[in-house]
Structure formats: C-alpha cells, structure tokens
Amino acid sequence: MASLRKLFNDFSYKEKSILISLLAVAGLYGNYFYDLLRGAVEQNMTAMLNNMAVLVVALIIVHIVFHIVISLDDVDEAEDERDKAVARRASVFGYNVLFVAVLAVIGRVVILGAFQDSGTFQEVGGEGLVGDADRVPPGSFEIANLLLAGLILSEVVYYAAQLFFYRRGIQA
C-alpha cells in the first residue's frame, strides 16, 4: 500500500486527473458492457437511454468526488506546451481506434445488409429473419452499442496514451 501511495505521489495533478478519468470510464462502461454481454441489460433503446443517463450521472459524481480528493493535496498547474503535446499525440491514438471501430461497424452493417438484400435471409413463421448460420442483420440497439463500445475504447486508449506519454515522454 505504501508503494502504491508513493507511486501516486509521484504523479502530477494532471496525471492523477487523467488516471481518474481512465478508471472511471473503463470501470463504469466496462461494467455496462459486461452486463450487456451476459444478458443482464434490457435490450431496447429506452433502456439504453436510461442506462446512459445513469452512467453519465455516475461519471460526473466520480469525477467530482475524486477531483476534490486530489485537489486537497495538489494544486492545479497551468497547462504548458508539454501538456498540449501529450494531449495532441495521445489524441492520434484515440482517433485511430475510433476510426477503425466506426469502419468495423459500418462494415458489419453493409455486409449483413448485403446478405439481407440478396435474399440470404428469409422470414420464417413470424420468428424474424433467419439464414446462413442464423445471421441476423444488426438492429439499432446493436449498432448503437457497437458504436458506443468504439467510442469508449477510443477514450480509454486516449487516456492511457496520455499517461504513457507523461511517464515516458514524447519522442519526436
């Protein structure tokens, strides 16, 4: 515990703030996606909207509480050129992850839409669309969650890259 405390004492206020954001986003949204994958989340857009409202409020509360805690020991430093360079460099990594995630979701929609248009899917006894290997075209709930997962993953990469660059420095 003492070594953990020493590690965090070596962090600047900015690094602690980024760590709080990283852990809050990864923890809260990670829990949402874990519940979603195990089927504990109601799969409709109204429930998703309610879940997102709760998550946003929880993120705000976590940020406020933990920023109050770290501000008791540290003072907020003015942003300098290094901070801007770290944020700029980290945003490239976050953006690339977001770009790939959006392309993957678009690819999923287009490919499965092409299967649906070609007649690979057929309506069977009012049970919905079935076809080769029970492929079902993605609905708005699935697309929204896939895009949200890409957005959250890009934010986690962005925060992690910022911490990495603060610890290791930026190579030109």
Main structural class: mainly alpha
pLDDT below 50 for ≥5 consecutive residues: which ranges?
A: 129-133
Strand arrangement within the widest β-sheet reads 1-2
Q: What is the CA-based Rg, rounded?
A: 21 Å
Cα shape = flat
Query: How many domains make up the 3D coordinates?
Result: 1
Query: Number of helix segments?
Result: 5
SSE pattern, N- to C-terminal = HHHHEEH
Let me know the largest β-sheet: 2 strands, antiparallel
Q: What is the residue-mean pLDDT, rounded to a whole number?
A: 85
Number of strands: 2
Beta-strand content bin:
under 5%
Structure description:
The protein has 172 residues and is an all-alpha fold. It has one domain (2-168). The chain is 74% helix and 2% strand. It has five helices and two strands. The protein has a two-stranded antiparallel sheet. Strand 1 and strand 2 form a beta hairpin. It is flat and about 60 Å long.
Write the SSE topology.
Blueprint: H1 2-9, H2 13-37, H3 45-73, H4 81-117, E1 122-123, E2 129-130, H5 140-168
Antiparallel strand pairs: 1-2
